[in-house]
Design a protein that fits this description.
Elements (H helix, E strand, L loop, with lengths): L2 H31 L22 H10 L3 E5 L5 H9 L4 E6 L8 H6 L1 H5 L1 H5 L3 H9 L7 E5 L2 H10 L6 E4 L7 H8 L4 E4 L13 H11 L2 E5 L2 E5 L5 H26 L10
Parallel strand pairs: 1-2, 1-4, 2-3, 4-5
Antiparallel strand pairs: 5-7, 6-7
Helix pairs in contact: 2-3, 8-9
Length: about 270
Amino acid sequence: MTTGAANIADTATARGSRAALQARESLASLKARYPWPTERPSESPILWSLDYGGRRLVTDAIASRGVNVLLEIGSFLGGSARQWLAASREVVVVCVDPWPDLIDPGAGIAAHRIGRAYRDQLHAPEGVYRSFISSMWDVRHRIVHVRGMSLDVLPELHSLGLRPDMVYIDADKKGHEIPVCDELFPDAVIAGDDWNWSDGYSFPIRDPASRSARRRGRRLKCVGTTWLIDDGPWTIRERLLQLQSSPRSLTQAAHSLMRRLNGTTSSGRRR
């Protein structure tokens, strides 16, 4: 190796070490600001992920990119956060959600067998929040839970030094958080859910996600209901995932439209 190449390698290593140190310090600040309860709630853990297809797109990216910090906006009971943790032993997930009381569970939750089985627990005061804490208790050392509306807490998280490698958005299905994340976390990979969710007139998440991809000069990839803004070309594996998920994606989009036409509520919650 030449002297110039060695200097470049040393500089890159030093920058990586500084970034890792900053990430550890920011996570320590977040954990101090948003501590876990001292005792596990009495509610039963609920291992439930509302996955309508395509999350392999995200888990593959976590593993291949060496994602260490993932910011998840909209966590519900923590099912998707567990998927991110399983993708890499190194990743820490910052979960943002107001965890409101489940007054109107929506058609998707009310119709699901798990939603029916835990109806009383989830409908109790603080039932959703306490269920999340109980469900994630065994992995709490890798979870920072931030209770609040995302648009309110994102600037605070940024001020505390949070610089996520990836942001996953599964909130109100309209993508209000996307331009905020573009501004606060321009280097993060942005991904999310609800690509095929419709209010009966349009697919609300698609426009803000597409605009984000254009702002970043990157490629928008969609697999099932999952989307991801990437700086690389489609891989063969990603195309295969896309083909495998296509029938399910069409079915989910059709069901979303039918719910609107029938006048029923969606499973979306404001987070």
